[in-house]
Amino acid sequence: MTKLDLIEKTSDTSGLSIKECRGVLDHLLHHIQHAMIIGEPMYLRGFGTFKPIVKKEKIGQNITARTPVIIPAKNFPKFIPSAYLLHKMNKK
């Protein structure tokens, strides 16, 4: 499913226009991104948690030259699904 598919389905079921649904989704994604940028987790009950994590600096290897290379620390977003979502996905 793409972002446009989600907007169209939301528009069909909510009675809002596609333009209004696009605006709502864009604002939601903006707030999730902002929370990740400032290092704050975003909890969405019944769906999951978006949480920023820091991957530590580590030493890798340049395969061609066989020399050690320092891989710098990086920030990554992590999604942890809720127990409810996992239950619904694995229900048979």
Question: Which features would summarize this protein structure in a list?
Answer:
92 residues; alpha+beta; two-stranded antiparallel sheet; 3 helices; 43% helix
Explained architecture:
- The protein is of the alpha+beta class and 92 residues long.
- The chain contains three helices and five strands; from the N terminus they run ααβββββα.
- It has helices spanning 3-14, 18-37, 83-90; strands at residues 42-44, 48-55, 58-62, 67-71, 74-81.
- The strands form two sheets. A three-stranded antiparallel sheet has the order 1-2-5. Strands 3-4 form a two-stranded antiparallel ribbon.
- A hairpin with a 4-residue loop joins strand 3 and strand 4 (67-71).
- The two termini are 22 Å apart.
Topology as H/E string? HHEEEEEH
How far is it from the N-terminal to the C-terminal residue, by CA?
A: 22 Å
Report the sheet-strand fraction.
25-35%
**Helix count?**
3
Rounded to the nearest angstrom, the radius of gyration is 19 Å
What is the total tally of β strands?
Answer: 5
Structural class: alpha+beta
Coarse shape: elongated
**Mean of residue pLDDT values:** 94
Oligomer: single chain
The description of the largest β-sheet is: 3 strands, antiparallel
Order the strands across the largest sheet as they lie in space: 1-2-5
The low-pLDDT segments are none
Tell me the helix content: 40-55%
